[in-house]
């Protein structure tokens, strides 16, 4: 089996093409992972960890507490903001208004608390619990006198988490960016070994998912490796990457330039032939290809390629220098030299990181000295880099954002406006402009469609720069994360048309499986509806009994939450909008529940017997349609949680029923009548409890059992 691997500066991914359908390799729950590896000093078997009921309860409690804390912080922020606004209005009325700069300075001290989604908080707490479990296991190993070292590392976000947890070991991030630099042999050996470890991790994940041995790979490579621009030997980085791949267990290694891979992915979905300019802008490199794509040709025709070693990490460094490093003394006469701060910001450069650590900070004044000491601790620069990267993402969408550095100093934070990002990105845009001007000059008459992919393709300022040089071209935004790896997988396993008879047989089997899956979903939906009907019957009875009491108000609220949950189940795809699922509605349900966009990313994923429903849909509109369905599903899970919390916050009725239950003893004189009254009370109370339980049990998703079964595969 041959796979395609996009070994990226910031993130890496892999995919395989089977019968013309691209299947992405998953790493944990994701289809890509941060290109980082942590080598711990001791080994704990992570497969032994399980999320117990107690852990789930702990996670729920933490989420509830964090929501409460957020509400309190938001209230305090709004009060402080109101006080600032009130003071400004007072000064204006008195004829001495604040200037715009003074207003900006006053408000810059206020940082609006960030609201985290339930899923984000759940994942963070899950990671914390797993880290705590890992610590307990390591302590147990230490007590038993066992000293087990593992040959391979911890990868992706787990590597960063291990670093945050102050585990013993070393972390390496973005090793691809070092392949093109002229390094001393010890550093070169380290980088090559780290790359081999990451590629071996990818190969193992592919073998586990595909159930077969994987020894062949098509690796993407930039047109020009970062740092190799002035090198005499431009093939040296590729040789290092090939050696690392062979060390990782691949026996057959091929390379395809990344913009050519993206061109192939775009080509497959285009019915009509046309000229296209493929722009792949990632974390470390920017590549461009001019090609003829689409139509009946087996593959695109690549006419020219261009490439330079710059990308999104350049913006990260500049943004860090502008908003973070001043907190450590950058720009202060008693701080460190400029080179030291820039070295600290370049987390992927091993030699620059070592240079930063060697600087003497004895003469640096406080508070910068203490902050620099903490920044020099293991992994602190990596953590700062990730926080700055997140700030970059937020400022691409919002006018302001906050950077909190509590891990350096409690309460250390800075309020940042989007102009900081614009300024930090200017150097990158200048380089991109020079590259695009070169392309434009070499294609003076061309008016190609612009196909953009890579992580930086979504940045508005990058898109604006492209429009400046190709103002007459239509821009198509491809998959920012998987445009390259899709083409690599398609190049690795070219599609061969199936035998018509076998294809018809396969489609018949697929249609039958799909019908069975729809029927199964209908059965589950019917069971849920039966529970709703039963609740409504009980509700009507209890309403008549408790009319005019506070219990009746509770029942009204419970009915409202059950109705809201029913609507949420429809939007999440667990319940049909009518009596039964239509074929299209069930397909939309599958897309809604496709967490992480693992299966439905292209029109090629639509079953043949449903293709007519998407006749007027192109790849871009299908991706937007699928993303909207998945987002709807994510949103409504919060509705259900909110409904449960609303009912949990309602007062109990123990006092009401205690008072009601004491009535027979106080009022009824004859024992026979008292016993009868107590029996009536017991029946009344049991009826109330059954109705309440029936309603609360409906405040959840009506999940029909899928076991990851997908009838379209």
TrEMBL record:
<dbReference type="Pfam" id="PF00012">
    <property type="entry name" value="HSP70"/>
</dbReference>
<dbReference type="GO" id="GO:0005524">
    <property type="term" value="F:ATP binding"/>
</dbReference>
<dbReference type="InterPro" id="IPR043129">
    <property type="entry name" value="ATPase_NBD"/>
</dbReference>
<keyword id="KW-0067">ATP-binding</keyword>
<comment type="similarity">
    <text>Belongs to the heat shock protein 70 family.</text>
</comment>
<dbReference type="GO" id="GO:0140662">
    <property type="term" value="F:ATP-dependent protein folding chaperone"/>
</dbReference>
<dbReference type="InterPro" id="IPR013126">
    <property type="entry name" value="Hsp_70_fam"/>
</dbReference>
<protein>
    <submittedName>
        <fullName>Hsp70 family protein</fullName>
    </submittedName>
</protein>
<keyword id="KW-0547">Nucleotide-binding</keyword>
